[in-house]
Structures are given as C-alpha cells and as structure tokens.
Hints:
Layout: E1 5-9, H1 15-23, E2 28-32, H2 35-43, E3 49-56, E4 60-61, H3 63-68, E5 75-83, E6 87-90, E7 101-104, H4 106-111, H5 113-118, E8 122-125, H6 129-139, E9 144-148, H7 150-155, E10 159-162, E11 172-179, E12 193-201, H8 207-217, E13 222-229, E14 236-244, H9 250-262, E15 263-273, H10 277-284
Parallel strand pairs: 1-2, 1-3, 7-8, 7-9
Antiparallel strand pairs: 3-4, 3-11, 5-11, 6-9, 6-10, 12-14, 12-15, 13-14
Helix pairs in contact: 8-9
Amino acid sequence: MKDKIVVYQGVEGAYSHLACNKLFPDSILKAKISFYDSMQAVEKGDADFAVIPIENSSAGRVEEIYKLVPKMQLNIIGEHFQPIKHSLLACKGVKKESLKTVSSHPQALAQCANNIKKLNLEEIPKFDTAGSAKELQQTKEKTHGVIASSFSAEIYNLEILDENFADYEGNVTRFIILSKSATIPSFNEDKLYITSLLFTVKNIPASLYKALGGFATNGIDLIKLESYSDVGSLYSTQFHVDMYGHIEEQRLIYALDELRFFSEDIKIIGVYERNEHWNVLDINQ
C-alpha cells in the first residue's frame, strides 16, 4: 500500500487518523473536513481509500454514515476496530490542579464525565477531540485542558496529564475501508467473511418479513439491519444489511435467491474478511 492516498474525516491526531496510521503506515494520509468530502475524494479518484467510523461501542452508530452509504458509489473492502483511549492533555508544564476548563467532542466529554467531575472542571464541547488539541496548541491557555488521544499530544506538543482519563475501559470504534473498485476475496472455508448489501423491498404485504426469511432458513446470521426512507416519505423502503458469510457460499447463494424474489435493486456493497475483533465481541455477549 506504499504511496497510496488515504483520506479520513477530522484533523491530524484524530482517532480516524490513528486508525489510518495503523492500517496504512506507508501511505499518504490526508484529512478532510467531512465524511462526505472523504467519500467524494475516493469517488473522484483523488484518493485510493477512505477510512470511515461506522459505530462505537459506547456511543452507538454514526448516523450520518448510514445516510451517506445508499448514495455512495463506493465499495467496502475491509473493517478495522480501533481502541479509543482518551487522555487528558494540557500545555507543557501545567499540572492537573491548575486546570479550570476542559474541551473535547461531546461524546468524549460524556465518556470521561466522572473524572471531569472529580477535578471540578467546566466542560466546553468542541467539534472533535484532535481539533481541541490543535486549538490549545495555538491558544496556550494554562488553565485549560483537552481530552484527546496521546497521539494528539505528540503531534501538538502537549503534556499528557492522565493517559487513561475515560471512566471505563473497552471503548472501541469500528471503521470501514472504502474503495472505488470492488475487491472481493476468493472464498476460503478456513476464513470468516462479512457481506454488506442494499436492497429495496417490493410493494407487497409483509415484504420485509418474506425477504429476510431466506437468511433464517439458510442459517445466515445478520449483524446489522438499517432502514432508509425516501425523501418526503415516512415509509422505510430501502435496507442496509451486514451478514456473516461470503457470496460464493452455497447457503448465502440460496438466501440471496430468495431475497431477489421479494426485493428489487439489490446491490452488493462489500465482501470482506471478518475482523478477529468480532470473536471477542461474540464471547462477551
């Protein structure tokens, strides 16, 4: 993956940047203002891949992504689970006792609420974690701290006052890797896969129930089912499904045949190897 261009949403030091650094250490990493801009860069050929967060173990799904997925002309070629480790940062030489305020993304503030309360700090919500660190580097406020990654501290020359500032451990974000070209790995019985697809149900009674019936009868486990409504409508007609299995597996072939009978506009948006992190999640459920 050397010399490939990889884009992410945010600024340098963001958790998305950290995920890109892990996945593509030898590539050119570029920050984009929004998720839409990141996807557009890949669609237009200005970047080879986009690394996008899709859900978090504490905060749930990233709703904006699920709204963008049906509109994109991209393919999911992989997934990555990035541990989220919040640190309390400040300017060099500053002590915890000197802090009066703290800023970060609202989710990061919520995930560190107990520790913030212990220090009696006033919370200041910001657009993102790394952006808060970048801003502190510029303002150099001695009574202000930020919650971000230790990676941000390295980039913006800040002091790490507490490397594990979150109230609870085990916070993880699931990222998807997007590409303009569809790269489907050959089926290997010794490996586990995920297939992601979009489909629109036909206008018949109990269409969704009937469309999904083939997955149950063929032993296909669904990981996620998201619904979408057309603009100006309150009815869900399009669905996004993530499932365990490869499109070359006979049981999935049978399930998709049944799906086609009760649906229309089926679009496979990704077939990729299942990340081993799912094994940990399955054990803990």
